[in-house]
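Lab meeting notes turned into a lecture example. A postdoc, R.K., suggested we walk through two folding results consecutively so the class can see how the record format repeats. The first protein's sequence and structure tokens come next.
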Amino acid sequence: MSNQTQTATLSGGYRIEMLSGSNWLPWKRRMLAIMRDSDLEMYIKEGAERPKTTATTDTTAKDAELAAQKAWDIGDSKARTRIELSVGDSEMVHLTGAETAREMWEQLIQVKEARGRSGILA
């Protein structure tokens, strides 16, 4: 029986082992490094959220809001793509229902990191 390791090659030329049931800590550390280097870490940090729309009637302010939201959407999409492409098939279930990179990251943390007696070590 061969023990082949699945790897992912992400944009930027990064090549890391896909997330499996047994490599959470090294995978997490490498993904954090990739996100930092790609200026995408802000999309997975606690409190990460899309800029809000305000009730302003100032067209300049409204244009700035829309530009900030568009930039956020693009960055979040890139972060989600990096996560999705580096998670193995058996672990993909943990991303179900997540709509943002932050939600994906939080769901992986909830499943993979020990929290009291019911924590799962991975």
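The second example is placed directly after the first for contrast:
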Amino acid sequence: MTETFRQYHLPERTGFDCLTINNLPKRRPQYGQVLIRLKAVSLNWRDCAIAKGIYAYPGEACDFPGSDGAGIIEEIGEGVTEWKAGDRVVATFIQDHLAGRLTARAVKSCLAGGRPGLLGEYVILPETGVVRIPDYLSFEEASCLPCAAVTAWNALYGAVPIRPGDVVLLQGTGGVATFGLQIARVAGAVTIVTSSSDEKLAKAREMGATHAINYHTSDWAEEVKALTNGHGADHILEVGGIATLPHSFKAVAWNGMIHSIGHITNMTDDDKQNRPSDATFMTIDPPYMLRRIIVGSREQFQDLLACFAANLIRPVINRTFDFRDAKEAYEYLWSSSHMGKVVIRIP
């Protein structure tokens, strides 16, 4: 076995230039563990925010970046029964969230947070920390799923399941929004996408969006109500946070759901203090529910994969970078030039 492997490291969190490659000793899996040869890692806004030191909940192991990755099991430890060498797998984001309600203890097992991340050549995970990749998906495609796709699935099926004819509002055209669009479409929903880019809105229409709104040229909350004859959105995938929540309150349908996800506009300490708690609550007048989403469970990931396989849904990959160009991948994602996912290929 190779004695060392390459792994990206963040010795400081002051920007993307801090990303460095270290050589780490390669270990063998212990009881209940699997050794994975990683082939692809996808990036999320969270990865960029951690590198810049502005993420609210970085975790003690965030200096080893990359939460979303896929690869091949190279070796299994004693007691492993679910996997064998050669199986293609993708890691779950919250390693200890297997099913049911998320607990405060489980949330500490996030990759590139409470536990080291995947932006390297090898990783050892518990056998329950991975799920099987459907045969039709590549490693690059599978690496896109753990955070963004599972988050969208949890939003639309985790508390109040989406129904045919529901109106689903998707903020932006990043990973969560594009996955939300794909999931909502196969569920028979009416989909509305917002963006500041007419080019991205045109691509959203090509993906099947029912309506597209440029929020720089119109009041998108009023536009949502107008497009739905005053009904509003039954589900809102709310990724903006403090800057967009007031508009979501106006756009949501009576007894609708606002799924609070990314809070990508929360950059200041004051904004971080104003984040909704990790809880669900309902307002009295008018009634709607604001639900904080922290990705989802292994069971939900498996449900998502079953849906994707049945409908042959493929992630939208905007751009792929080589392993040596990880800094450029971070910079590209941070520029908000993408639509869909940004992937780093590992040789």
